What we know:
Helix content is 39%, strand content 22%. The chain has helices at 2-9, 25-33, 75-87, 107-119, 138-153, 157-167, 192-201, 219-235, 268-275, 280-297, 317-322, and strands spanning 11-19, 51-57, 60-66, 94-100, 124-129, 179-182, 203-204, 244-253, 256-265, 300-309. The strands form 2 sheets. Strands 1, 2, 3, 4, 5, 6 and 7 form a 7-stranded mixed sheet that branches. It has a 3-stranded mixed sheet with strand order 8-9-10. Helix 8 runs antiparallel to helix 10.
Amino acid sequence: xxxxxxxxxxxxxxxxxxxxxxxxxxxxxxxxxxxxxxxxxxxxxxxxxxxxxxxxxxxxxxxxxxxxxxxxxxxxxxxxxxxxxxxxxxxxxxxxxxxxxxxxxxxxxxxxxxxxxxxxxxxxxxxxxxxxxxxxxxxxxxxxxxxxxxxxxxxxxxxxxxxxxxxxxxxxxxxxxxxxxxxxxxxxxxxxxxxxxxxxxxxxxxxxxxxxxxxxxxxxxxxxxxxxxxxxxxxxxxxxxxxxxxxxxxxxxxxxxxxxxxxxxxxxxxxxxxxxxxxxxxxxxxxxxxxxxxxxxxxxxxxxxxxxxxxxxxxxxxxxxxxxxxxxxx
Length: 330
């Protein structure tokens, strides 16, 4: 009986991790999970898929949905990623909005605050990341939230009543105000306060995933993300936004996996940049991606890379679906 009581007291929650690009969402997710489940870089649009990271401890299980960062969209893929980011805030148990506390609030930060003020999620956490930096703009973010709340209070009361009635919501006054915490995703223990806040908000319930996995992200998409991360690190600001990565084949032999990967670019000139002089860029990507993938999957991984020019690949529904951007998985 004691074991059953302990099981029922364990908590579970799905947490939507949102915010503008470069707020450090992926770094926070990796820190909370305890290992790398999502790629990280200072380049916009690094995270292009919604990735589930799973936190398991004695208190229960948190399923973290790391999402594309909201940014000023350029082109069809940018608009698609923004749509994914906005949609990810729906249907979660807890909404976690990440802000880059090392920089003054940006337009996208205000946009997320206004969305929270309008939609009034039942459980919401505002996390100011990068608290190890100086200056740290906590006061400026809190003041912005007060201004946003002041604007929302000027909405006619009759309109608010109609909204609550039409959506079947409880009166707005009963909604819980966002909880503010600070964090540092790059340091051990830097997310302890954040995890405490999330578990405090979580409800008792059964685990949603087995307790021995840290992500249910498909292998092919995870491999493609690691390759794309290495490309971003190598290419910097030259062509990363117009590069797509697709795993064509994954041969899972015992003791050794062979992976065939195609890198898509829009123009012939970009192909040369990606390949590099005498293939130096592709060699560097292969040499860095292979060991990381081997550590990730616990088996030797050999990566073969090809570069293909596919004009307007970002408008190709088949490729977008195969890369996971339209919800399809290979």
